[in-house]
Amino acid sequence: EQKIKLAHGRIWCDVGFNFGATAHSAKFFKKISKMTCALKVYMNLTTGPLLVEKSLDRELIFKNWSNSSPIIVHAEGEALEVAIKLAKKHQRRLHITHILTEQIELIEKARQDRAAISCDVTPHHLFLTSEDIKKLGPLAIMKPPLGSVSDQQKLWRNLDKIDMIATDHGPHTLSEKESDHPPFGVPGLETTLPLMLWAVSKSMLSLKRLIEMTSINPRKIFNLPIQPNTYVEVDLSKKYLISNRGLFTKCGWTPFVGLEGRGEVKKVAICGQSIFENGKFVGKPQGKVIYPT
């Protein structure tokens, strides 16, 4: 409720909130279920106090989430197998976020067993590899960690099995990332479109498929309302190298410096109202907090 109030008059586009689950918060699931797009469960190490490791706690969470919205899990290794088993046991929809190459086979097997599973991949796992860590240093600290070039190539080859592109936007400041205890995560919100349009220009996926992964599928998976007259106008002829200059994110940096971007956003309209034109936001923030339909 506090986040919803804080968002009023401050967000440019419509936004939905997830609820970070712990065993202690399970008693609130019924109260907050209609206010959230999904429940999120961290089953591996993360930044903050939301890690859920105990088997009984995980069982309690999956059992008590009776909403039709999915349970998002951040799970690697054995934790993913546990999440799939719990989802099947309690007949919950499961969304696996930030997948790695070794998870694809497990997800496909569960789908063949008729499990209700969707998944996403991040831009940083598609466009960066462990070879970039030397250059990026602590800026490359993230969960899951960057994989090898071979891992990256396998993600691209299996893109047809992945439902969504999810930015996993973590706008930590440079001072935070360069501290003695750097948090996990990198910013990625505004660089996702130019990176993916570059991939389209190289025939790594079609424009239709990109629209599915960034717009159509997320709406279906999270039961989001249709937004009429909502669109982005892009000049696809524009080519440029991504840099830290001119970023809108308040942290002021990107891990994708030097990579080629395609497409210049000329206009963004939300429900018929223009909010961004020719490189600038226009008017006042009128975004709404949205809820599953």
TrEMBL record:
PANTHER family: ALLANTOINASE. It comes from the Bacteria. One of its GO terms (cellular component) is cytoplasm. Gene3D superfamilies: Metal-dependent hydrolases. One of its GO terms (molecular function) is allantoinase activity. GO terms for biological process: purine nucleobase catabolic process. InterPro entries: DHOase/Allantoinase_Hydrolase (IPR050138), Metal-dep_hydrolase_composite (IPR011059), Metal_Hydrolase (IPR032466). This is Amidohydrolase-related domain-containing protein.
